[in-house]
């Protein structure tokens, strides 16, 4: 990775070169960004994404969602695009359509790091409960609240789920979900980052005190940077969209980036621009303008 492609979470500075660079890739978050609050993709947004691909601009969906939740997108975008799932833990090809998604890249959380993170966060924030996302499985502790769409495959303590000899050991761990019933979400994030240190990357995308713990160097930004490097695309040629703290590094890295009208304050500070809210088709508004600017 070149020096000017390094991932940083620092506050965005003006990018005059990127503002005049022809975009080659659009990277967009899903929930709160591309998707409306009812989890639909508007016809206007579908048309804008299709127009971008027809113009030769690649589309990447970059989300905290697991791969198995991507049918909601491929149903609406007719099999276009690649998805970076689990905050960078996996790259999934959507071109086969619903039910035919294929893992292109997996960046797992090593089990030793995962066990260390669980232990350290339990000590720093008693009452924290966990769930474990794997490539093809979802497991959780008995006390973990019903926050997700599916029934867990296994109910057991996180230490048991993550043990080297666990029955889940045959599949990579993509991320750990950590929930606290009483802490402020931003305070919980700060506390977890201090407690876990460099053993894992910690972020959040939920309005509640729900954290997402990934491999030490795994984030939306770092996986997007890898995918772009494989395609010979520089960060100046990327336009990114997001709304929550797990988008900050990606928005800072991209040459041009847009915080949604409904975005978290940290996201507004990180992005180089701002668009309207997700319910008002903020992503489509920018894509239409960018395509109109092309020679």
Distance between the termini: 30 Å
Provide a count of the helices.
11
Q: Please tell me what the overall shape is.
A: globular
Q: Which class of secondary structure composition applies to the elements?
A: alpha/beta
* Percentage of β-strand residues: 15-25%
SSE topology string: HEHHEHEEEHEEEHEHEEHEHEHEH
Radius of gyration: 18 Å
**DSSP strand tally:** 14
Q: Record the strand order, biggest sheet.
A: 5-4-3-2-1-12-13-14
- Which regions have little confidence, pLDDT < 50, spanning 5+ residues? 1-16
In a few lines, what is going on in this structure?
This protein is α/β, with parallel strands linked by helices.
Characterise this structure.
The relative contact order is 0.19. The strands form 2 sheets. The chain has an 8-stranded mixed beta sheet. Strands 8-7-6-9-11-10 form a 6-stranded mixed beta sheet, with helices on one face. 32% of the residues lie in helices and 20% in strands. The protein is an alpha/beta fold.
């Amino acid at each position: 990775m070149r020096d000017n492609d390094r991932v940083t979470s620092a506050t965005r500075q003006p990018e005059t070169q990127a503002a005049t660079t022809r975009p080659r890739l659009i990277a967009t978050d899903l929930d709160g960004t591309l998707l409306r609050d009812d989890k639909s993709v508007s016809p206007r947004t579908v048309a804008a994404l299709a127009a971008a691909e027809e113009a030769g601009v690649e589309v990447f969906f970059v989300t905290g969602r697991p791969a198995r939740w991507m049918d909601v997108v491929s149903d609406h975008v007719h099999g276009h695009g690649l998805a970076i799932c689990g905050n960078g833990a996996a790259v999934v090809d959507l071109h086969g359509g619903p039910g035919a998604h294929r893992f292109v890249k997996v960046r797992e959380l090593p089990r030793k790091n995962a066990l260390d993170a669980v232990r350290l966060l339990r000590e720093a924030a008693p009452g924290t409960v966990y769930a474990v996302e794997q490539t093809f499985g979802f497991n959780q502790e008995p006390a973990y609240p019903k926050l997700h769409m599916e029934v867990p495959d296994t109910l057991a303590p996180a230490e048991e789920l993550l043990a080297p000899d666990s029955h889940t050991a045959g599949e990579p761990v993509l991320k750990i979900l950590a929930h606290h019933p009483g802490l402020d979400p931003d305070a919980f994030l700060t506390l977890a980052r201090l407690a876990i240190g460099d053993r894992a990357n910690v972020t959040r995308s939920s309005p509640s005190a729900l954290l997402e713990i990934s491999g030490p160097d795994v984030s939306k930004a770092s996986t997007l940077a890898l995918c772009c490097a494989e395609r010979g695309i520089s960060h100046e040629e990327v336009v990114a969209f997001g709304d929550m703290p797990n988008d900050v590094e990606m928005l800072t890295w991209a040459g041009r980036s847009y915080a949604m009208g409904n975005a978290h304050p940290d996201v507004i500070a990180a992005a180089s621009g701002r668009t309207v809210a997700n319910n008002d088709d903020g992503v489509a508004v920018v894509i239409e303008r960018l395509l109109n600017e092309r020679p």
